[in-house]
Every structure is written in structure tokens, then in C-alpha cells.
Amino acid sequence: MRQRLEEYYSKFKSIYNEKNYPDWFSFVESHNHDNGYGDQGYKINHKDHELGHYAIFQTPIPELMDSPQETKIIIVGKNNSWFIPDAKRVSESLQIVKDLEEGIPSRNFYTERESDFAVDICSIFEDLGAYDLLKNNTVGMNRIWLQTGPKSEYIKKMKEQSKGVRFAIEGTSLIDICHKWTEEIIKLLNPDLLLLLGTNPNGADNLFNKKEGYYDHENGEFFIKHCRHPSVGGKPKTKQDINLALNKLGW
Fold it and tell me: Which 3 state secondary structure label does DSSP give 211?
């Protein structure tokens, strides 16, 4: 399994370049320059850092840990937030996402509770008496792998179709590719429960043609539940949605 998952890192590195996506890379360069991030990639006493980086997973894979566990839940969000939204630790936040470009993490960036999102997710599972499931049996990832910074409209910049010879067809934008490969990874891991967080036009609920309920595929079956994202006051509804899903599976 490790080899098959690591192939997605290799494939993404091979297509994620200026030749294939000149408009996106031009936007990123201008954005980083205009914000004065400089060679360091960040400004002192500002929590935001440069754009252009990506992460596929935010947690380890339970089956690949020293004491292997079963992947029972996959949580998919819309896109990556800052891993440590603290102006005093912005360089650490930037280094985390740079490291996450290299492969499956050994650290669990949900249970470390550094980001607002991670704090909310841990709190929700604790309230539902299911924290052990989150800690030991859950994979966290995103439908859109690249960091978009503080403004969600930057996602629009990722909808440019690839200019590369290998991918000069429809369905090859960065959004399309992340979406397609996220679905493939989920089917490979084949959890019992798939929680898709976010229901706006760029939300994770766009996966699997917006299907909700049981989903059959070549590797098995899992239950899909669309959930409110916990940000911007959504935590109570997210908790309610996740509770319904856990009850559905008898957990």
C-alpha cells in the first residue's frame, strides 16, 4: 500500500510545474511578491506565508504505522489551512507544508491541535465519545491539495487546464487532478466511513458525483456522509452531521 500511495506524490510532482500551469505559477509568484514574503517565504509577525505548496495527507496512514491499525474513517476537507495560524510560529507552519510535499507524514496534524480546524475536529470527536477512532483509525486529507491562503477565491486560479502536452485535454486543471486522485486514494484505503466536509461549490462533497450513502467500488464499500465544515460558526452542525454518521455505522 505504501508504494501505491507514494506514487501519487511522484505523479503530482511530475505535473505540478510552470510549464503545465503557467497562469497559476504566475499568480503565485505575483501574490508572494506583492505580500513581501521574500526569500524566507514569510514576514515576521504575520501568520500567513507564501502560497504554492501542497499536502496530500495531514495524518499518518493507520495501516502503515508501527502498530498497524485499520483505516475506518477518512475525513476530507476542501483545502489546506495554515497548519499553525500563529504569527510567532509562521516559519514553522511554512516548514510543515514543505515537509508534507515529500510524503506521508509521521505526525498527526489533527491530534496535535495546532490549527483551528484540528482543534474543532478533536473537540467534536471527544464530545461524541469517539476520540480513539479519530486518533487511531482516521486519515485526514483534502480534495484540493494546494494551500489557498486566507481567500477562498484563489481556488479559481487553479481551474486553468494544463498547457502541457501530456495533459492538453479537459479535466486536467489542478482542481480536476486533485479531485480525481483523491477519489482514487479513498477507494484504495477503503474506509468504513467517508466524511466530506464543506458543501459550497468547492466543497469536498463534490467527490463521487455528490453521492451520499453507501458507495460500492472495486475494492469494497464505504458510507459517505456530507457534513458542514466547522469553520465560521459551523461546528455545532458539523458535530450533528458526524454524530449521525457514527450512529449509522453503530459506533
Answer: coil
Per domain, the residue ranges of the chain are 2-248
In the chain, the N- to C-terminal Cα span, in Å, equals 26
Instruction: Identify the sign of the CA torsion 28, 31, 34, 39.
Output: negative
- Give the pLDDT of residue 164: 72
Residue for grid cell 500567513? 48
Give the type of residue at 19.
Answer: K
Q: How far apart are CA 93 and CA 90, in angstroms?
A: 5
Query: Locate cell 480525481: which residue?
Result: 180
Q: What is the dihedral of CA 196, 150, 100, 237, to 10 degrees?
A: -20
Helix (H) or strand (E) holding 247: helix 235-248
CATH of 2-248, one of 2.40.30, 1.25.40, 3.40.470, 3.80.10: 3.40.470
Rounded to two decimals, the pTM is 0.94
Question: Which of the four pLDDT bands, split at 50, 70 and 90, describes residue 11?
Answer: very high
> Which long-range contacts does 36-40 make (Cβ < 8 Å, 24+ apart)?
40/91
Query: What single-letter DSSP state applies at residue 128?
Result: T
